[in-house]
User: Fold this.
Amino acid sequence: MKTRRNMYVQQKVSDQDKAELKRLVRVLKAFHAVQASMPVSRMLLLIEIALEEGLTTTQLAGRTGYSVPVTTRQMLDIGEYDRNHEPGLGLVQHHTDLSDRRRNSVQLTPRGTALAREVVTLMRK
Assistant:
């Protein structure tokens, strides 16, 4: 004799938590629209730059938890040209300190600013 499985599944996530998760999905889709396979490391880097523009690679590495070489590669990829000298995402621009050419800072481009604003708007919905 076949038994019927329970057709109702008890939900373990509250409605309020589901609403927050839906906001997160909208934010992730905004990043996905910029680059379909954008790694979380690039998303975090862009958000850290939006939080405080003008930081150096070393400062950003400390904030994101990634090494300086990884942060450098990620900054290149979201900049004008990626690490392979191909067109990048154009979300940030790099500035070299003229008094110390080893020191680079980064800030959002208009495209990066627009993405940051879109993310904030999606989080408020």
In short: The mean pLDDT is 91. The domain at 17-124 is CATH 1.10.10.10 (Arc Repressor Mutant, subunit A).
